[in-house]
Amino acid sequence: MKAHSDTSAGSGDASEDSEWGPDSEEECSCSNEIQTSDSEVDEDPNTVATSINLNDGGLRELVTRLIQEDPCNKKCLKGKAMELEQFLCSLSQMTSGEKKQSIIMTLVVLKKKKTDTVLRHRDHGLREQFNLFLSLIGQVCRTAWCKCYGISTATVTRYRKRINDGIFSVKAHGNLLNQKASAVDLRWLVSWFKRFAVSVGDVVSVRVRRKETKEGEIKMYYSNAEYTLLPAYFTWDQLYTKMHNYVEEIALRVREPRSSTFRQYLTKLCSTIRIRSPRSNM
Questions:
Q1: What are phi and psi of 230, to 5 degrees?
Q2: Domain residue spans in the chain?
Q3: Do residues 52 and 10 touch, judged by C-beta distance below 8 A?
Q4: Which spans does this entry mark as compositional bias, Polar residues (predicted)?
Q5: CB of 265 closer than 8 Å to CB of 243
Q6: How far lies 252's CA from each of 188, 245, 246, 248, in Å?
Q7: Global pTM?
Q8: What angle do CA 24, 26, 30 make, to 5 degrees?
Q9: How confident is the model at residue 280 (pLDDT cuts 50, 70, 90)?
Q10: Nearest to 137 by CA among 9, 268, 275
């Protein structure tokens, strides 16, 4: 999908500059300013959702609604029903990730287009301004641009921050960065940890346990539970390495947790296995 069209870059419909922010109820300037300050705006509750596959009737209805509800004074979508229908039809066939990547790359290209980009000083710092384009349609105001993509100015602000940080790809889904608990073999993990704790730790009866609250108070907890205390020289990073090396050594086919969730799982599932405090060895 083309990021933008150059055919209307120098046309007389060029818009005045304004900030990324909530539009006034009385007017909507055909402006396309991206600001480099950290301010964000709230999500637009009236944003048109275009991430679903549209049938012919729904597509024409959406095109008509976008043109009729265009708040821009210059009516930048007027007379472009066919082009808008083709654009939305293509957009509706994309997955959520493809749509996000298309938006980000469009912003990257517009940001790098030197002829349409200027820097201006305003009350809240340096702002970067450039014209916005839609493929097949041409130059449009920021409100029409956001509504055609089905996003709000707050979403554009988040994407703009990623671009300024040099990140042009869509952020990976959380399940790729942190495996689900159901994907990790927790039963094996707990079993291994208990066997390892018995082999290197000491089993003690903890009658009284002291815990400091957020307010700085010391509370005493009494129980008859038996705790397994690991040597004080262990750290959670070292324990994770022990577990990983064990899996590699015997070529065990098991789904390991990531190091970032290793401690989280075991402190919750094996609450009676602790690393001994260094002070207790003195």
A1: -80, 155
A2: 56-165, 186-275
A3: no
A4: 1-10, 29-38
A5: no
A6: 11, 10, 8, 7
A7: 0.39
A8: 65
A9: low
A10: 9
Rounded Cα distance, 171 and 143, in Å? 25
Residue whose pair of structure tokens reads 């539009």 in the numeric block: 23
Condensed to tens digits (0 to 9), the pLDDT of residues 98-142 reads 888 888 888 888 777 654 444 444 455 445 566 788 878 888 888
Strand order, beta sheet including 125-130 = 33-35, 125-130, 117-122
Give the separation between CA 268 and CA 195, rounded to whole angstroms.
17
- Kindly list the distances between the CA atom of residue 88 and the CA atoms of 150, 160, 180, 267, in Å, as whole numbers in the listed order: 10, 23, 35, 50
**Structure token digits, residue 193:** 């940890």
Tokens of 76: 């930048």
Contact partners, residue 98, CB within 8 Å, separation at least 6: none
